[in-house]
Write a structure and sequence with these properties.
about 140 residues; mainly beta; four-stranded antiparallel sheet; three-stranded antiparallel sheet; 2 helices; elongated
Length: about 140
């Protein structure tokens, strides 16, 4: 959801204060948007901007590395059973990576990617697409 300020606002996001000037546009989740609109009636408006559907950040068959619940690295070339991408799904707020072993992981926990042709990179430095995007 995209909102636009109709007058200056001071908001808190993740515990940090943010000052927005009149005309500033910002994206929030639907839940955040409802809270902001309730807290500042008449001071923000919803923009229904046409958006291109997002492009899948990871492709089927690619291998991913992530930290498991115990904090250990999992997946990748050494653990293909737990690291092969089946598909990525966009739910309107974020991506979920579906692995062939049935796991569903938020995209944000993916730390490394290997493509079918063997190209590999870390997401922090090179993004999920290897080109610096979305990382």
């Amino acid at each position: 959801m995209t909102l636009r300020c109709l007058e200056p606002l001071a908001l808190k996001f993740d515990g940090r204060g943010v000052r927005l000037e009149t005309g500033a546009c910002f994206a929030v989740t639907p839940h955040q948007g409802q809270r902001i609109m309730a807290q500042f009636p008449g001071k923000v408006e919803v923009l229904d901007l046409p958006l291109d559907p997002p492009t899948d950040p990871l492709q089927p068959g690619w291998l991913v590395v992530y930290r498991d619940r115990a904090g250990r690295l999992a997946g990748g070339c050494d653990d293909r059973e737990r690291g092969t991408v089946e598909e990525c799904r966009w739910d309107g707020n974020g991506w979920t990576v579906h692995l062939t072993d049935g796991q569903r992981l938020p995209l944000a926990i993916i730390r490394g990617v290997t493509t079918l042709d063997g190209a590999a990179w870390t997401t922090r430095e090179h993004g999920y697409d290897g080109e610096g995007g979305q990382g």
